[in-house]
Amino acid sequence: MNAGFFLQIQLSLLSSLIVSNMVQKVAVIGAGISGLTSIKSCLDEGLEPTCFESSHDIGGIWRYKETPVPGHPNIYQSVVINSSKEIMAFSDFPPPADLPNNMHHSEVMQYVRLYAEAFKLLPHIHFQTSVVSLRRTPDFTTTGQWEVETERDGGHRETRVFDAVMVCSGHYSQPHLPLSDFPGIESFEGRYFHSWHYRNAEGLQGKRVVVIGIGNSGGDLAVDISRVAEKVYLSTRTGAWVVGRVGDGGIPGDLIWSSRMARLMKMLFPWWLTRNLEKKLNMAFDHKLYGLKPKHGVFAQIPVVNDDLPARIISGRVKVKPNVKEFRGSSVIFVDGSVLEKVDVVVFATGYEYNFSYLPSDLQAKSGHRLRLYKHVFPPTLTRPTLAMVGFIHSFGAINPASEMQGRWATRVFKGLLTLPSEKYMLQEIENDTINLHQRSDAELVGARPSILWFLMTDPKLGLELLLGPCTPYQYRLTGPGRWAGARQAILTQWERVFQPFRTRVVPEPEPRPSRHWSISVIFSGAVLLCCVFYSKQHLTSFWAPLPFIKSPQ
Predict the structure, then answer these.
(1) If 405 and its partner were Cys, which of 268, 370, 439, 472 is the partner (CB 3.0–4.6 Å)?
(2) Same fold, 20-173+354-436 and 177-351
(3) What is its main location (predicted)?
(4) Domain 177-351: which topology?
(5) Contact 498/101 with Cβ under 8 angstroms?
């Protein structure tokens, strides 16, 4: 080791210390789930968060609104969360045991409020305050600071300087309505609207309805509307794999396939696992027969989570159609040449666009359809990594734990405890990043990913649950920064919280009936046992003998 090497280390440590001392005040934009976990991450790291929320309450997309508010996310009345409560849980705040496994949006809000109250997050939030613009300060290259201009209801504007910014305002507020892809829509005689406007099926009784798009919203709306409409036609360009919330044995399906063992199998034998999962899904219902089979494999795109869609199709209440070619008057012409006449309503379930008008224009650059962000969090071109986008991911599994991990990572970068690679490296990574982000990759960056082997050796009970059980967020609080003393107990009791909501009627176990006669099965089992004992006595010594480090039993 030469003196230059040690000097470089000292300068790096000094730089980290300077950044840590500089970054204290953090602006958090949005008080949805990503915003709340970001506030808590700041508090955990000793930072001073100030959250700006444009509405009057927390919850973001999960807060149902009777009347849609432009520029805000909205959900429909019947929404039930796709991920089960243990998979989407806050990593250091397990959900109450009596809450259902797949919660209605009102129950999600109940859980979110409990979280905000438990960690005293509300005093850090300025409600009815919108962020108008973000600007780098003139000395940004040395301080990394931002001018945050806000506007309160009533028009009062204010500009404050912050050391860092966490953007958590979500991406489900700007509907994507590609009308130019549908010739004749401007002269369509019926009514059309985006799924963002949908609340419930009121007013659609007895109507002929076409739903365009088969994401989770499209599937949900087709099912919901089909309960009152004359008929619903679900139009899809690509098809989709459909999975249910209910898994084997009636427990949440995502608890089964989210284990580390399942992930290991996917990594080692991707073709085998893909084939077998598709076979399993087709055993529930034949996707080709139902007109839903896509060209892509089950892991290539996020599947549609819907328990009711197959039942609505088999009952004829929903009919699957190909993509729409054009509209003529009140008729819809599909690409296969079929024509549907006298259509009353068309619902576009065609997704959302990013809308960050308050960001500097150079930070709104996209890579494909996504913002150009390293690990979906940091703009790679900033000279100081003091702005993080939290929650802007679209991946398999629950988004909430992933966005929470992003916030934990971002705050440690702000403090200088973790560093980002070079701009060149980050840009290359962004270009190569075509695979969805999972929370475990950020856990490695934070230093919070548990060593399964270490736990298997030191705490076998916990280690086996980590390996074979569901990969719940509590695992990322066992070690490293942000370690939580209650993580072990949360993991070992997670199945109790899964089973508790089902215990509304306890089915008594049948009482054993005494019998004077041995059953055939008991006699057969006894005979097999005797044979095994005899075989073992004859061959046990030869079985153990090849293992020199094990003493043969006497």
Answers:
(1) 439
(2) yes
(3) endoplasmic reticulum
(4) FAD/NAD(P)-binding domain (3.50.50)
(5) yes
pLDDT at 173: 84
Q: What is the 3-state secondary structure (H, E, C) of 183-209?
A: CCHHHCCCEEEEHHHCCCCCCCCCCEE
Composition of the chain by helix, strand, coil, percent to 5? 40, 15, 45
Distance CA 92, CA 79 (A): 25
- Could you give the maximum distance between any two Cα atoms of the chain, in Å? 93
| CB of 414 closer than 8 Å to CB of 384 | no
- 508: which DSSP letter? P
d(CA 296, CA 300): 6
Fold of 20-173+354-436: FAD/NAD(P)-binding domain (3.50.50)
DSSP 114: H
Residues 6+ apart with CB under 8 A from 236: 213, 214, 218, 292, 320, 321, 322, 323
Whole-number pLDDT of residue 544? 29
Q: Tens digits of per-residue pLDDT, 378-390?
A: 999 999 999 999 9
Handedness of CA 430, 434, 435, 437 (dihedral sign): positive
What is the 8-class DSSP label of residue 441? Answer: H
CB 275 within 8 A of CB 265: no
* Crossing angle of the two packed helices 33-44 and 399-414, in degrees rounded to 10: 40
Query: What interhelical angle do 270-284 and 260-268 show, nearest 10?
Result: 120
List Cβ neighbours of 509 (8 Å cut-off, separation of 6 or more).
Answer: none
- Give CA torsion, residues 37, 40, 44, 46, to 10 deg: 130
The CA distance from 262 to 471, in Å, is 10
Residue 13: what pLDDT?
46
Computed on alpha carbons and rounded to an integer, the radius of gyration of the chain in Å comes to 28
Yes or no: say if 96 and 114 are a contact pair by the CB < 8 Å rule: yes
pTM of the model: 0.86
> Which sequence spans correspond to the domains of the chain?
20-173+354-436, 177-351, 452-501
What would the two tokens of residue 47 be? 């930072």
Contact 216, 305 (CB under 8 A): yes
DSSP 378: B
Question: Using CA atoms in the order 63, 68, 69, 74, what is the torsion angle rounded to 10 degrees?
Answer: 40
H or E segment and range at residue 389: strand 387-389
Asked if 339 and 208 touch (Cβ cutoff 8 Å), the reply is no
Both ends of the chain: CA-CA distance in Å?
59
* Owner of token pair 């003998």: 545
pLDDT (0 to 100) of residue 369 = 67
